[in-house]
Amino acid sequence: MGRTTYKRKIYLQDKPRQEALSEILTHYAPVRKVEWVDSTSALGRITAEPIFAKVSMPHYHASAMDGIAVIAEKTFHAHEKNPIQLKRNENFIYVDTGHAVPGPYNAVIMIENIEEIDEDTLEIIEPASPWQHIRPIGEDIVQEEMLFPPGHTIRPVDIGALLASKTLQVPVWKKPVVTIIPTGNELVQPHEQLAPGRLIEFNGSVFANYVLDWGGEPNLTGIVVDEPEKIREALLKATEESDIVVINAGSSAGSKDYTVHIIEELGDVFTHGVATRPGKPVILGKINGTIVIGVPGYPVSAYLALEWFVRPLICEYSHTPVPKRPTLQVKLGRRIVSTMGAEDFIRMNIGFVEGTYVANPLTRAAGVTMSLVRADGLLVIPPEISGLEQGDVVEVELMRPLEEISQAIVFNGSHDLTIDLLSVQLKKRNLYRKIISSHVGSMAGLMAIKKGEAHVAGVHLLDPETGEYNTTYVKRFLAGQDIVLYPFLKRKQGWFLPKGNPLNIESVQDIAEKKCDFVNRQKGAGTRVLFDKLLRESNVNTSEIVGYQREMFSHLSVAAEVKSNNNAVGLGIFPAAKAMELEFVPIADEDYDLVMTKAFFESEQGKNLIEVIQSASFKADVEKIGGYAVVENPTPLVITSKPEVE
Ligand SMILES: Nc1nc2c(c(=O)[nH]1)N[C@H]1C(S)=C(S)[C@@H](COP(=O)(O)OP(=O)(O)OC[C@H]3O[C@@H](n4cnc5c(N)ncnc54)[C@H](O)[C@@H]3O)O[C@H]1N2
Ligand code: MOO
After folding, report:
1. Residues 361-382: b if buried by 16+ CB within 10 A, e if exposed
2. CATH of domain 17-30+176-317
């Protein structure tokens, strides 16, 4: 059998998302099917027809109170000065709440308004009005009444109405079957062996669960390799069996991105490329009357594309509107640039600081699933806007409940592992309280406090003049504000060395003399300041250090470099050395402290935070990492807004 070869498709369209959606909706002609389901298991299903009550509720006149049923007309003359006596079974019967009130009785008197004379005789001093304390037939539901219109999503309370009216089965839309085909030679199932170049297939399960959540019936196939024949086969089978087909990855311009050609060959392609970032390489087409949607491989692009195109089709199938997320006005904590001509979808962290919702962008990389996991909101920047300024007030779609966002502690500054532990401990004490952190570096953290965009900043800024950490910087940059510098951690800084320290490195002189390959940090990093200070103190010139000009941007990347070179040395914190299984020779303790406004420090949230920091369980968590110590009951440094007298 001859193999089909396909040319690379290089140019993708930039079709506006709404236009692509409207177009695909016009091509969507679903064959809707109705199924009858038991009312007890109809939760979340959508009624396909109006639902009418089978019987009334109540279906008899029912007493609404414990007491006696009477004939109202025979009580009309009752008065304090004219008590009326009633005889059992003659002109009253005893009834309890819910009992039937048989004719000719037509009113109920509560037991507390009755005087018992003897077993069969009662006395009343007030008349009863007709139908008082009686739930007449159909008070709640009248037989043949419409319970719900078509297109109604069944909720728990609706199941109550169905059962109460003896409506035991309901006609609902059959869920549209959405077949999901993950493709890629590099993919393995999560339980399979991993190797370099092998990626775990997880998009498929994410899609399946979204489809389920949105009211569809997911059908996740196995992984299909990047071979035209296999893809063709999978698509043909899927289009026969499903209402909608989603094929993942292979949507772009790679040498093995066959999907678009195969859809074109088997049916029609309406769109290849939408004007969005991320999510651009979407394919919208149709094979044998079934809509086929090719979504990009990168997880974030993939989930967004699914929401833009698959969700509306599922809703269209059941004639329901596409739900919208609630929105919130937020102030931007940072400037955001955006692509002209394309909609930008930016995952945001949101915090409530000093009475304002402040939002900061998370990473924009389309391969970072955690950006969606961590997102509090989604900022959509329209195509005609090239960027937004820090401080602009914009609308974001909420991806988390507002209560949760409002109670979070906004943490900015230099990242440290212990901040996650702190967040876990806070969460354990209070369901909602957590920390949302932006890792922007110590200086940017200070600036966030200055501008009221964060509650707490984590900083480790060494003053090379004084050898002191943080104090100088806080005094200089936050002058004029009421600020608290809270001594938080002592972190061990030390040499990162190959296992066993083969070159026996202990000092800056050793590094220079033995011509080690030094792995440096970027200018401004606390570790870089420390290294430069060590050089000065030891009278070693930067030119004597091999590799001084090579800068890495994190402790972990320094450790990774050292791991790959037996002649290398780096400087950094212990956990990074431990993660890469390196030798670690401690040389200094670094102060990693917390900066916050005095108002926050004194607030309930602030007190909570300090309490957790000083708790035995948090300290135990921190000790487990190694190379760390929480400063025991420190004296916070309070800096007041009153300018210092020089
Ligand atoms: N020259 C160009 N290259 C690329 C373009 C472009 O316009 N020109 N677009 C880029 C964009 S934007 C995206 S998005 C990706 C889309 O690529 P594909 O849809 O062809 O997907 P793959 O390359 O096969 O996979 C990309 C990436 O996605 C992850 N992936 C894929 N499938 C799964 C799965 N089932 N589970 C989890 N993760 C999955 C994986 O990390 C892949 O490496 O193309 C750019 N390139
Ligand atoms: O569309 Mo890609 O999704 O920008 O990363």
Report:
1. bbebebebbebbebbbbbbebe
2. 3.40.980.10
- Describe the crossing of helices 228-241 and 259-266 by its angle, rounded to 10 degrees: 50
Pocket of ligand 2 (CB under 6 A): 277-281, 296, 298, 301, 366
Phi, psi of 521 (to 5 degrees): -105, 165
Pocket of ligand 1 contains residue 12 by CB under 6 Å: yes
* Span from the CA of 203 to the centroid of ligand 2 (angstroms): 15
What are the tens digits of pLDDT across the range 316-347? 998 899 999 999 999 998 899 998 999 999 99
Residue 202 alpha carbon to ligand 2 centre in Å: 17
Q: What is the ipTM of this complex?
A: 0.96
475-501: per-residue pLDDT in tens?
999 988 999 999 999 999 999 999 999
- Convert 110-126 to b/e letters by CB count within 10 Å (16 or more is b): eeeebeeeeeeebebee
The span from the CA of 46 to the CA of 230, in Å, is 36
Residue nearest to atom 33 of ligand 1 (CA): 297
Two structure tokens written together for 332 = 């931007």
327-407 classified as CATH 2.40.50.630? no
Spatial neighbors of 284 by CB under 8 A, at least 6 apart, are 20, 23, 24, 269, 270, 271, 272, 291, 292, 293, 294, 309
pLDDT score, position 359: 93
Give Cβ neighbours of residue 317 (< 8 Å, ≥ 6 apart).
30, 32, 173, 176, 216, 243
Q: What is the CATH number of domain 34-57+140-173?
A: 3.90.105.10
The residue contributing the CA closest to ligand 2 atom 4 is 278
- Per-residue pLDDT band for 414 (boundaries 50, 70, 90) equals confident
Q: How far apart are CA 272 and CA 581, in angstroms?
A: 46
Q: Of 345, 607, 632, nearest to 484 (Cα)?
A: 607
d(CA 618, CA 596): 20
Domain ranges of the chain: 17-30+176-317, 34-57+140-173, 62-135, 327-407, 459-646
Nearest CA among 65, 116, 113, 71 for reference residue 89: 71
Q: Pairing state of beta strands 268-272 and 283-287?
A: antiparallel
The class (CATH top level) of 459-646 is alpha beta
| Average pLDDT of every residue of the chain | 93
Give the predicted TM-score (pTM) of the model: 0.84
Top-level class of domain 62-135: mainly beta
Helix (H, G, I), strand (E, B) or coil at 233: helix
521 pLDDT more than 60: yes
Over residues 547-570, the pLDDT tens digits come to 999 998 888 889 999 999 999 999
Q: Look up residue 472 and give its two tokens.
A: 């100088």
φ, ψ for residue 520, nearest 5 deg:
-90, 170
